[in-house]
Amino acid sequence: MNGQPSVTDAVGFGIFLAGLVYAPNVAAVVGPYIVIVLASVIGASFALKRREKTTRLVAVWYFLRVAGLAVLITVSLAGIGSSYYSSLTERVLITPVALLIGAIGDDWPSLLRSIVRIFFRAIDLARGKPDADKGESS
Questions:
Q1: Residue 74 and residue 94: Cα distance in Å, rounded?
Q2: Which burial class, exposed, middle or buried, applies to 35 when counting CB atoms under 10 A from its CB (0-12, 13-18, 19+)?
Q3: Shortest CA distance to 15 belongs to which of 137, 123, 4?
Q4: pTM: predicted TM-score of the whole model, two decimal places
Q5: CB of 70 within 8 A of CB of 36?
Q6: pLDDT digits over 84-93, tens only?
């Protein structure tokens, strides 16, 4: 029998690639981070396309910031997501979460403002004040 696990997802492929260079125990740790970095860089390329044109050095710094943020928070967000949806494991969520973090890029403040605005509108709607935000200018 073959002792190698089958590659059924992106993280499994990352572990396989890391296993070509590292010992199996190390590859099991390094592989998911290879996938996180690759997915966040792909997402960051979409975010970079939305930004105004800058120098190459600024673009490289942007990629490092986005990939660093993804490395720091992807596993935590995937864990939170898998706790709400028991059919999804952290391993399955790692790739889309890293891609999403990269694609958001520097738009976190506007995204969080939108989420808070939707949350407060839902509270106003639940309290019976559906027209509370008509006087606001967004």
A1: 6
A2: buried
A3: 4
A4: 0.74
A5: yes
A6: 888 888 888 9
